[in-house]
Amino acid sequence: MIHASGLSKDTRLPSDAVSKSREKSRIEAALVARSAYTYADFLLPHLQPDMIVLDLGCGQATISIGLSETVPNGRVVGVDIDRYDLAVGRRNAAAMDRGNLAFAAADGRRLPFGDRCGALSLSARNAERRRQRRR
Fold first, then answer.
1. How many domains would you assign to the chain?
2. Cα 28 vs. chain centroid, distance in angstroms?
3. What is the pTM for the complete model shown?
4. Of 8, 41, 78, 82, which has the highest C-beta tally within 10 A?
5. Residue 33 belongs to a domain
6. Is 47 a member of any domain?
7. Strand 75-80's sheet: what is its strand order?
């Protein structure tokens, strides 16, 4: 691009900005493939903006990120036993600016939360089974 001064102006984004843009595009593509609207559509109408939602077996958090959009004043806690997937989920949530999304490494059969957690829970495995039955 030629600037008004006649000198060429570098319009390329810094490499870290390009990298962040590519990462966000990759995450958005994953969100489309495994969205809350696809796997938790039955649950979405029941969510209130200030609810706490547990996503059991959250994996890399693609569904959790969608759920966090639905409860902007609440919190989504993604629970998974796989620490690598949780690390990817944390990066994905940070890249998508999901401050109301937290993660816990735990076995879904023995959750580290008290009995009075008061949260609504979603199991992606059960959501997948439900989705397959509707086909």
1. 1
2. 10
3. 0.70
4. 78
5. yes
6. yes
7. 101-105, 75-80, 52-56, 120-123
Closest by CA to 56, choosing from 115, 116, 100, 120, is 120
State the average pLDDT over residues 101-130.
Answer: 72
CA dist 10 → 2, 6, 14 (Å) = 9, 13, 10
> What CATH number is associated with residue 114?
3.40.50.150
Residue 124: pLDDT above 90?
no
Q: Is 6 among the domain residues?
A: no
Dihedral in degrees, nearest 10, Cα atoms 20, 26, 30, 31:
40
Specify the pLDDT at position 125: 56
Angle, CA of 87, 93 and 95, to the nearest 5°: 105
Structural domain harbouring 53 = 15-134
